[in-house]
Amino acid sequence: MSHGKSCHSAAIVLAVFSIIASTATAEHAQTTLRYNPGQPGHTSTYDTYINLDAPTVNYNGNWYGHITRDSDDPADPPEKSTLVRFDLPSWVYDSSVTVHNGKLGLWVYGLIDLDTSYDCVNVGAYRINPNRDWVDSQATWNVFKGTSNWSTAGCENTTWDRVATADDTLMFTENSAINRYYEWTVTGSVNAWKGGAANRGWNMRVPSYDGGPEEGISVNLTESSTAANRPKLWLDWTQTPVADADGPYSCDYVGSVILNGGGSYERDAGSLVQWAWDLNLDGNYTDAYGVGPSLTWDYLVNTLGLTPGESQPIGLKVFDDDGEWSTAAYSTLYVAVPEPTTMAFLALGGLALLRRR
Ligand SMILES: [Ca+2]
Ligand SMILES: [Ca+2]
Ligand SMILES: [Ca+2]
Ligand SMILES: [Ca+2]
Fold this sequence. Notes:
This protein has four helices and 20 strands.
């Protein structure tokens, strides 16, 4: 029975495919995109610090920023906060791209009054609200641009200026090493922007500390002459692959046809690991597997139920080493009719042979 044989081989292929798929998902090859000002891949970074003690002064143009607190009362604002934003290229927003991990890196060159074993400050990355289109050369403790005031000075209003909960918070103590990058995990914010919220970057602020005199950290900003020490954003991302079903195809009566998925490709690092075909277009991509499967007329007609004499749509989806499927690509497959056409063709051929004699 050809039916039984076909179903059996399909089941084996499916089992093998399951093993390949789970292995690929575990490896999850990803691409890392790094934004370093002045380095390849960088577009634009904007930053400045703002200062409670000088609420109308804009500090853009300085190579440094401060992130401090000097009030024990958690209801009070911090002393100095640093605003930072990175423009992202348009492809990051494409639905084919998934950002798995985003890290904001700031080069810490100094600790401010962290000099006893009791001293500690927490520094968090708080996403700034979409309606706060702050301008680096204008923002101060009082305004986010021009004469537009923050709802609460210092970008402190958790309804209108920034989110209430940090993407990530790092603790600094007297033992924290300086002259190195510290990285805040900011995947949530990057995905919020991918989801449609306008990107206004982060307010880097101290939500809490051990108390006492002003404490905090000092960081290099975009104006730093050392490009390697400027703010950076690392994104680990994957992109779905692209299927190409090629064709159109034609299968002779009791012959076979070889499909060609070789034009399909992976868009990020890594490779394709499976090609899955839907030949009766019932939405199940389980009719054939592989980049170039060979299919018999008998399988197409008697197992899949394709109608001889018609050109029918077929679909291909490809699966990559990141564990992601492409969207479907389509082509057409013509399956030849059995006897009448074939017999007529043979008869005509025979006639032509006869006439040549
Ligand atoms: Ca700046
Ligand atoms: Ca991929
Ligand atoms: Ca990949
Ligand atoms: Ca199918």
